[in-house]
Recover the amino acids of this structure.
């Protein structure tokens, strides 16, 4: 690693770094020396000149994302070591396994690599950078991935939608090999088609794996509605669990087409499953007492703090309308993946929705992200997925 700049913090601003929080905000910086440009590696010092660690610099509110809290500068084996540690965490949680060959290999701050997400799809890795520094290091990361996972067939770099503005124009590319899409993976024995080139994010929402599995416990013999279905993950699990019928809804025709393919891939007939390319609110207008189980897994209503109020109103309306139409004794799986809407705020929003709907509600489960999306104990902001399983009287 080539360290091109040095950053000195204001007095007192070193405390969070000493507690291993990975973010340094621009207001904490006393001075910058050397070549400090977007994406470069910098040494971070306290006000006395003591080295606190090293990280990527970026001109913005979060000025430095810490990658090392050591006094010694990172060596050429830095990325290999980081990735091996991340893989060890997955091995500790039983991934990959005979029944699941798709998982998240690195989860940004949760794995000590802020700005880097890597998803594994049975021999293919999708790398997504969220910072200029990770974009600059992409080739070194790909080379390290080949050492850590020698059986790889391809590494695809997909960051056009996640990078900051100045580097967003860089095209997506294969950093290693070539991958044929769509690509079939197995999750808890069930099969799914992955298209990382055209699909959302890296091609699949791996963070709902355990929650999809839990849905099966509530689906046998039931009428199930899966809204914002994307690839139909929850729908496949409901069908395998013996649901009487499953309806999948998404405003995107592309998502509906992929859902149909996944239903077919798992061997289910059209009589058990129907898809609708329509807005969820419009779909539910005349669906009173039709469904025993409903899944609400919308995209992030707020990606920034200034949009939080509007997001809360959106979650409240969506859940209230759903509570009004679900059958008495129905089960509602409801989620928020908005990082700026914390767990307590989400819970309070669901309480407000229940009051608005006038239904008695019991909380059966509190849900979160799975073990391959770990949260660093020093960075609680990394917990982004919140969910509740509700019994609606």
């Amino acid at each position: 690693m080539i360290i091109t700049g040095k950053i000195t913090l204001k007095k007192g601003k070193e405390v969070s770094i000493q507690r291993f929080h990975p973010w340094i905000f621009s207001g904490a910086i006393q001075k910058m020396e050397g070549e400090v440009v977007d994406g470069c590696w910098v040494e971070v010092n306290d006000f006395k000149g003591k080295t606190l660690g090293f990280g990527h610099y970026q001109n913005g509110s979060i000025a430095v994302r810490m990658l090392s809290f050591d006094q010694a500068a990172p060596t050429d084996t830095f990325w290999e070591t980081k990735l091996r540690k991340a893989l060890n965490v997955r091995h500790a949680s039983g991934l990959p396994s005979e029944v699941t060959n798709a998982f998240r290999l690195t989860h940004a701050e949760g794995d000590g690599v802020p700005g880097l997400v890597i998803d594994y799809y049975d021999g293919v890795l999708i790398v997504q950078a969220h910072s200029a520094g990770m974009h600059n290091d992409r080739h070194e990361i790909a080379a390290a991935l080949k050492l850590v996972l020698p059986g790889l067939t391809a590494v695809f770099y997909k960051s056009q939608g996640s990078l900051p503005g100045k580097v967003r124009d860089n095209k997506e590319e294969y950093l290693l090999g070539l991958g044929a899409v769509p690509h079939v993976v197995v999750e808890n024995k069930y099969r799914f088609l992955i298209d990382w080139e055209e699909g959302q994010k890296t091609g699949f929402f791996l963070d709902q794996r355990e929650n999809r599995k839990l849905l099966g416990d509530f689906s046998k013999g039931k009428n199930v509605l899966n809204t914002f279905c994307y690839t139909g993950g929850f729908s496949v699990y409901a069908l395998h669990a013996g649901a009487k019928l499953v309806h999948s809804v998404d405003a995107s025709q592309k998502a509906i087409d992929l859902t149909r393919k996944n239903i077919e891939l798992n061997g289910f007939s059209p009589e058990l499953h129907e898809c609708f390319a329509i807005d969820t609110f419009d779909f539910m207008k005349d669906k009173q007492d039709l469904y025993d189980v409903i899944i609400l897994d919308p995209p992030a209503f707020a990606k920034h703090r200034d949009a939080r109020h509007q997001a809360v109103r959106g979650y409240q309306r969506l859940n209230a309308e759903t509570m009004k139409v679900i059958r008495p004794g129905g089960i509602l799986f409801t989620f928020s993946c908005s990082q700026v809407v914390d767990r307590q705020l989400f819970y309070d929003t669901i309480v407000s929705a229940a009051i608005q709907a006038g239904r008695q509600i019991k909380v059966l489960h509190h849900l979160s992200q799975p073990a391959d999306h770990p949260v660093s104990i020093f960075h609680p902001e990394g917990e982004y997925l919140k969910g509740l399983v509700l019994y609606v009287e």
User: Anything to note?
Assistant: The mean pLDDT is 95. The CA atoms of residues 319 and 353 lie 6 Å apart. The chain has three domains: 3-68, 78-184, 205-392. The domain at 205-392 is CATH 3.40.50.150 (Rossmann fold).
